[in-house]
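Here is one chain, start to finish.
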Amino acid sequence: QKQLVESGGGSVPPGGSLRLSCLVSGDTLTNYCMAWFRQAPGKEREGVAGINGVGTARVIESLKARFAISRDNAKNTLYLQIYSLTPEDTAMYYCAADTTCDIWNWSGGYHYWGQGTQVTVSS
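Its structure:
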């Protein structure tokens, strides 16, 4: 059974950094297109970064300077590194996966989801 388990969230002051992790079990990470989404209270879920099976990575333009997506195939783990956090980054962060690669930042294109990890940025 495929499972995605996120970790690494927490409460940090503005300007801090976090690295979120998403451990994939039950299958090999490279078989999937994967992405990080986030959802703040009262807002729609938005895709922030994605990576396909061969490792081509994308980050939405507005976050490129501060967000980086990567993966460790040996650990079957997806990462999201976030620098210079702002209160606007406060959200639940989810990783998602699917064997077919649709529009990478469209949540409807992903069949498998983790439970989320909360990121709170506050002084």
